[in-house]
Amino acid sequence: MHSGSCLCGAVQFSVAGDLPEASACHCTMCRKHTGHYEAGVDVPRASLTVTGDDKINWFKSSDKVRRGFCAVCGSSLFFDPVHLDWIGIMMGAFDGPAGTKLALHIFVADKGDYYEIADGLPQNAQ
User: Fold this and answer.
1) Belongs to which family (predicted)?
2) For residues 18 and 2, what is the distance between their CA atoms, to the nearest angstrom?
């Protein structure tokens, strides 16, 4: 079991089971949503329990995806492809050790020019 929350604690969540490897998305939308690039894990919806979900605001960033953040403190929390059976959770929202590691960078063709990716992990242009 892994738990986490937003900065103010109004939204809390838990994920049953081990977390998969994480990925980092450098696309423009993820950078704007998080303020840098987005690091997250994709988990089955059935493994996620959320309390304080009435404090989540959802921004529909495309026809297929919405992004969830705390309405109180603004913490970026979720990447939700509504037509799929999984949901993405921002790595920074987990409390304590996550027991997983970053495994891949995606959309690096869109990354900001103010940083370099030098961790040796695979990088996908899109």
Assistant:
1) Belongs to the Gfa family.
2) 8
Residue whose C-alpha is closest to residue 37's, from 116, 98, 100, 121: 116
Specify if 115 maps to a domain: no
pLDDT tens series, the chain, 126 aa: 999 999 999 999 999 999 999 999 999 999 999 999 999 999 999 999 999 999 999 999 999 999 999 999 999 999 999 999 999 999 999 998 999 999 999 999 999 999 999 999 999 999
Q: Output the domain CATH number for residue 76.
A: 2.170.150.70
The answer as to whether 59 is a domain residue is yes
Identify the domain containing residue 18 by its residue range.
2-110
Phi, psi of 59 (to 5 degrees): -110, 120
